[in-house]
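DATA SHEET
Item: assembly model
Revision: 1
Owner: S.N.
Input lines:
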Amino acid sequence: MNKIQTIKTISAAIALLFAGAAMAQAPAAAPDPAASDPVAMGWMQGSPPAADKTVRWVDGSFYKFPQTRWSFAHWNQLIPSSDVWRGDGKVAALPRAERKDIAGLSFQPANGGATMTFEQALAANYTDAIVVLHKGRIVYEKYAGAMTPHTRHIAMSVTKSFFGTLGEMLVNEGKLDPGAMVTQYIPELKDSGFGDVTVRQVMDMTTGIKFSENYADPNAEIWTYVRAGSVLPRPAGYTGPQNFYDFAKTVQKDPEAAGAFRYQTVNTDVMGWLIRRATNKTVGELLSERIWSRLGTERDAMIAVDSAGNEFAGGGLILTARDMARFGEMMRKDGKFNGQAIIPKAVVDDIRNGGDRAVFARAGYATLPGWSYRDMWWISHDDHGVFAARGVHGQTIYIDPKAEMVIARFASAPQAANGVSDPVMLPAFRAVADRLMRR
Amino acid sequence: MNKIQTIKTISAAIALLFAGAAMAQAPAAAPDPAASDPVAMGWMQGSPPAADKTVRWVDGSFYKFPQTRWSFAHWNQLIPSSDVWRGDGKVAALPRAERKDIAGLSFQPANGGATMTFEQALAANYTDAIVVLHKGRIVYEKYAGAMTPHTRHIAMSVTKSFFGTLGEMLVNEGKLDPGAMVTQYIPELKDSGFGDVTVRQVMDMTTGIKFSENYADPNAEIWTYVRAGSVLPRPAGYTGPQNFYDFAKTVQKDPEAAGAFRYQTVNTDVMGWLIRRATNKTVGELLSERIWSRLGTERDAMIAVDSAGNEFAGGGLILTARDMARFGEMMRKDGKFNGQAIIPKAVVDDIRNGGDRAVFARAGYATLPGWSYRDMWWISHDDHGVFAARGVHGQTIYIDPKAEMVIARFASAPQAANGVSDPVMLPAFRAVADRLMRR
């Protein structure tokens, strides 16, 4: 294959993945959203729950749909987790200014489907929790299934944006040199695919490594990765890497990926490793100290850990929807929230300015035309300046600076890829933004 | 053996256990307290920690001394845990009135040892955290090793007293009938050793079941129990019970134990099961609703869960020392704290009045002469009316009503049995009480 053919092949594969690939364990005919409501289905109800209504980590049932509709809302009950202390400061109140017109707001999905309302879109896409802020006030808030305002949900890859932000903060402070080789901080990666990459390439996921995130392919590296990190139970006789960092040492180079953006979770754990080396704190400790204890959060967050206690920077954050909205609002306000500057404006600017759009385009995300990736955030470059944190199965922080709107959303869609719901949810979010701007 | 011989044998065995039996995994020559300081030893220090400084659940290293000095302070990072929400109320401040004279207070241990100071006693007995309240004010507070004022520690069997208290609350409300057979609520236990026992017998641990809590005996039921509940990893090919309740169904009767008090953890998980059946809530939900959200706690508590999500009522509570002190102070104040009646005085009275001292005496606790056991609390019947929650390796809530004193203490002593430290720590606590009463 020549280079262009290769890129086309890769692009097609990734586009396929993000356009509609089902999660490996999702059944062929998934129950619809109403039928899969975890409370209605009785998952983990009863004293104790019946065997066929029990959701366990050890047998992998927690990661099968529709059990995921319960387990995503009970992650630290399934996987050991360290805590991200909220500190002992006061909660930063989120004032309420509810807008009754949002639920029934009509919009046109981008997939050729019929016009639908915002609330229909939420339900149809397995939404577990959503908070919409306008100018810092809650204009819409809804919980479904196993979620309540005070309960936590796994954020999946929304987690990455928290640690990309912390990484960029350290760059801003001169504690991490974006132009330095990763091996300057982590010599252990010398013989791996990370041996010749810079800190900046890790932050923007242009490391040229071999690591497939194709959830539909049982041989994809992502599966070994989550087993190394004890996110999933290991098959009998497993002899692979024992934790996230040991896995990173085994990562190979993919010569065909040089210079390309590829969405690869292992990069974020290397980001986490860099953060630890630069600060001598765990990523959870740094998150608590720099952000979580200053945001006026309602609750501690938690982070799933691997069997050696390493926090899963790539996807382990567990938090409430309101606290996730507070973080988003802080980003919208150039790093200011709760009466203080939490993140320098220069850090937020670096994120919002985005990455290389041409490099991103070649990755073939059909639902994200014109977007880019920077500091582990997704940047739309649209006329509203939208930027987002995104995690599989529908997790997002969607920030629309022009509309002064922040959306924090948790979901448990049967498919991992957000390409499935983007044609509905992205227009839905834009419709709310447009409505909020009308007055 | 006739009955008296049997009782003597059992008593001797239990006395041996509680007088000095080492925890099964404790090394023959345990490092002394200073040498075993987890920070000084470097456990889980580094980014990431070196392999020989890593504490893991999966290989059992987390439950070996001296690693326990780190792991007891990081329990939810090792074992999946549900959370006991503190609610959204204000923290109930614990005013400070520090007494500089407590640290150097001299006292005479009951083991014939030399006079020592209170602070020496704490250090010599592997204390991780201690809060001493006098009339509701902090007069002494100290953290060591891996603990800080805002971090949580596993409470071990101190947990039992929380659920014994909730059980007695339900009795007080008529939601649990102490005279009813356990099988009235839990028919599944019909064919087990619990088939012919009452709720009251469970609450006071006089169920006559076969269940050895001898940590020094590798064949003791306690080991199968903690493996069933996923507190410890299971040996390869393990085919035993899969969770706490399935274990309870397999418990046998011990004809020689009829009418005797025997300290057996499985009773508390049956207590938890009764609570769940009576309320249709998990024990953690009930604890949050009835107590934790009303105490003005500083942090959520957590409870370790088994692989089916059942909370470990027998020993899984994870909480801060200050919050444990708040609970103790509420008990001292007849159920009132934070400006409200949290538990009816009748419930506290039932606990403080204690159980059958003659039955308790036959269990042969050499360090607890004249004590009794009631509602999962230990009652001294001494001239100060002391009553206590107690957990292996030195966990305690020690309440001295006459001295208006409450002590909350966490430790990570190499030996499980509190009989080892009682001859030092009980006189130490009494010496502080006497000093506080002098002015």
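QC remark: Confidence is low (pLDDT under 50) at residues 1-27 of chain B.
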